[in-house]
Amino acid sequence: MKTLIFKTASSYLLPLLILFSIFILLRGHYLPGGGFVGGLIASIAFVIHSFANGLEKTRTIIKFHPGFLIPVGLLIAIISGAAPLFLGQNFMTGLWMDDPIPVIGMVGTALFFDTGVYIVVIGITLTIIFTISETL
Amino acid sequence: MIIAILSGFILAAIVPFFSPYLKKNASLIFPLLPLLLFGYFASFFPRIKNGDPVSMFYDWVPSFGVDLSFRLDGLSLLFVLMITGIGVLVFFYTFSYMKGHEYIDRFYAFLCMFMASMLGLVLSDNIITLFIFWELTSISSFFLIGFNNEEPASRKSALLALSITGLGGFFLLAGMILLGTVGGSYSIQELLSSSEAIKSNSLYGGIIFFLFIGAFTKSAQFPFHFWLPGAMKAPTPVSTYLHSATMVKAGIYLLARFSPVLGDTFWWNSTLVTVGAITMLYAAIHALFRLDLKGILAYSTISALGILVFLIGLGTDEALLAAGVFILVHALYKATLFLVAGIIDHETGTRDVTVLSGLGKVMLPVALAGILAALSNAGAPPFFGFVGKDLIYEATMQYGEWAVVLTGAAIVTNICLLFAGLLAGVKPFIGALPEKFGKVHLPSPLMWVPPLILASLGLVFGLFPSLIEQSLIQPLFSSISKSGTEIHLKLWHGFNLIFGLSMTTLILGTLLFWKLKPSKNLFQKAFRFEFLSPERLVGHFARGFSGFARIWTGFFQNGYLRNYVITILGFLTVLLAYRLYNGIGFQIKAEMFENVTLYEIIVLLIMAVSIVFTVFSTSRLVAVASLGVIGYSICLIFLFYSAPDLAMTQFSIDTLTVILFVLVIYNLPKYNTFSSTPIRIRDGILSVFFGLLIAVLTLEVLNEPLNRETSEFYAQNAYTLAKGKNVVNVILVDFRGFDTLGEISVLAIAALGVFSLLKLRLKSIEKE
């Protein structure tokens, strides 16, 4: 599968797809999208890259084992859920900033939670796929 | 009182922290605990004597009606004094017996635990608490029986004892819960007042059945008796403490305790008399053929327990009194004989009665204790055993038309028991001393004083029964019998029939002792019937059961993923088909198809073609690609029905699934056929049925009126409450955020599982 066209395309596709996945993540609260789909798209981006250039190349791009993303994402999700506790509110109560931030839009704990999901999903998918393709 | 009961557990719990300091002489602090407890409980003597039971109440789990209520009455007092009193002696004895043992501190800790459980058992007024302590005795005795855990035989008998008594425990719990439900209370005191109502309840049969199983397993009644001889693998102090005086009497305690509540009905009396009689005869005759000192004692203990069950079953005043007295008589002489057997074993290294003789010349005090105990066991005047035996005959003689049969059974049992007692308590000490025992010497006083004390008590109580008549036996009698008659213990009744029977027993037993010499030959003759014994049968049952489990597991848990799927789908299909067989609610009407669009038809056609490709393709890659096509078609259907979020997710998931499949399949060898035709037909039939059923089920669901309350709530409140316009996402991250958190955690665990499974395999391959 290592054709020149695929190789060239994949190196452009990778940043584009990742940007797209972030876009999907951010718009999730108002329009179709969200952390789960976003995470899947981002992982597909890496998988395509690894198909075209080999697993080792992709590994050097990511620089660390994707497994590390799992606890990081879980931590973000839990912190965003636990944050209201410090303000005397129930676990996972939505907290929101008063004004929207340009480009990103409304920022609240739900967005951080979704980001956590996004990171966990990338970590899980890449861990599974990389492990399997290494083993075989 | 609660501190007194729990002190054993507390002491046992702190032992591990001081273990290095408790190995040597410091372990002498352990006997202080039963000594203190004995003093404490003995201080209640005057109160109990005046018929004034001591009650204590602590809340535990009030919502279940379970509390720590303790009550000390005549029956409890006898047991408590036996537990702590014999406990003191056994604890001292242990110090010398186990001297220098590596784990003596551990042994003491187990003994303390056991003592505490026993105290709790006989003092509990709440039947659930009683059950808990009951189980604790089983568990702590497991550790004690299996104390020499490096011997397979020791482990095996510990396991056997635990499984039998544990099984009984289950039944007991069932009985207790039934009793509590029927009687409306878990307190024994309150149950006493509703005794008549319980007896006339239709569940009464179940209650006593469960209770009996519990008591029979614990007190080693036929056919559950076989764990007790096995438990003789334990160190002798354990056999003395558990298997003569305390634990095996727990079942007797239970029966005696519930006798005023549940007793005096046809089934109660006849069952107990029958089982008790069978046990006492069976075990007494068995005892004749044993060669091992502890084996003889074990069987004679079983027989004695049978007598007790038998007496409680008779249920008359005389019988209950006889039972009460015999509990004490038996505890005194049997504990002595066990301790003596322990000393003999400890000093000579053998317990074979055919070898032992003449030891009286080298260890006179021990011989004295053994002979005194054997005489009390024989029921020779003026020993306490004589008083006990008289009472037994008195009880059987007055039992109407059955008097002759019952008395006969009691006499035969007593003759055999007498023989066993003489064999264990007298035979090793008389005759000529073999040369190889020439160097045997008297052990430390800590070992021979305890049996001597116990044996002398048997004589003292016999000579002066008034010592315990009013203080111990009368309160005991009033707590198990409903009639409040006065009792009188007498050594001398005059020359009457009962005295004649006693003498006959004595003479016949002694004759038997002189005539019947134990020998290997006799022992082997008796062994011919071993295959019929319950122990063997249970062994066969256990092996058969484990074999059955192996076949069962091998059949269902065969490790082939495809078989698991077939089992699950097949089971589900049968279940669903059965449910739908009872009637289908929906009807297919023509107007249902009016709104079908061209797009939908096209997509469905694509799916159908892909399915054919997936199933019939000879290349795995083609099959996987077709599967992907089906997935994408489903995405399109989601889109048509305005679920873009779902469609997006499905799309990405499908892409990744295909990639994963390709990754795996790429490395598999290329087959042209994947499975044989019959298997494919079987799988095809199964999947067609399953698919059909799911389709029918879906139509059924749609046929039901739809409840849109929840979805409307989400739709209305998504923006106002959670500031989001995409309802699906708001549900995921806000309304049901907790679920999502759980899901990503599960996913993380799954990823870890895949990672570690594959990596581990990789490592093991690399090693090779």
TrEMBL record, chain A:
Domain Na+/H+ antiporter MnhB subunit-related protein: 5-126
Record has Transmembrane as a keyword: yes
Membrane spanning residue stretches: 12-30, 36-55, 67-87, 107-132
InterPro entries: CPA3_antiporter_subunitB (IPR050622), MnhB (IPR007182)
Keywords: Cell membrane, Membrane, Transmembrane, Transmembrane helix
Domain of life (superkingdom): Bacteria
Cellular compartments annotated: Cell membrane
Any one GO CC term of the record: plasma membrane
Record membrane topology: Multi-pass membrane protein
Principal subcellular localization: membrane
Protein family (similarity comment): Belongs to the CPA3 antiporters (TC 2.A.63) subunit B family.
NCBIfam families documented for this protein: PRK12509.1
Name this polypeptide is given: Cation:proton antiporter
Organism: Rhodonellum psychrophilum GCM71 = DSM 17998
UniProtKB/TrEMBL annotation, chain B:
Subcellular locations according to the entry: Cell membrane; Membrane
Membrane topology label: Multi-pass membrane protein
InterPro entries named in the record: CPA3_Na-H_Antiporter_A, MrpA_C/MbhD, MrpA_C/MbhE, ND/Mrp_TM, Proton_antipo_N
Main location group: membrane
Pfam families for this protein: MbhD, MbhE, Proton_antipo_M, Proton_antipo_N
MrpA C-terminal/MbhE domain ranges (all copies): 680-759
One example of a Gene Ontology biological process annotation: monoatomic ion transport
Domain called NADH:quinone oxidoreductase/Mrp antiporter transmembrane: residue spans: 124-408
Every NADH-Ubiquinone oxidoreductase (complex I) chain 5 N-terminal domain range: 62-108
Domain MrpA C-terminal/MbhD: 605-670
Keywords per UniProt: Antiport, Cell membrane, Ion transport, Membrane, Transmembrane, Transmembrane helix, Transport
Molecular-function GO term, any one: antiporter activity
TM region(s), chain numbering: 6-22, 29-48, 68-95, 107-124, 159-183, 203-228, 266-289, 296-314, 320-341, 362-384, 404-426, 446-468, 491-514, 560-578, 598-616, 621-641, 647-669, 681-702, 744-762
Entry GO terms, CC: plasma membrane
Entry-linked NCBIfam families: PRK12647.1
Protein name in the entry: Cation:proton antiporter
Phylogenetic placement of the source organism: Bacteria, Pseudomonadati, Bacteroidota, Cytophagia, Cytophagales
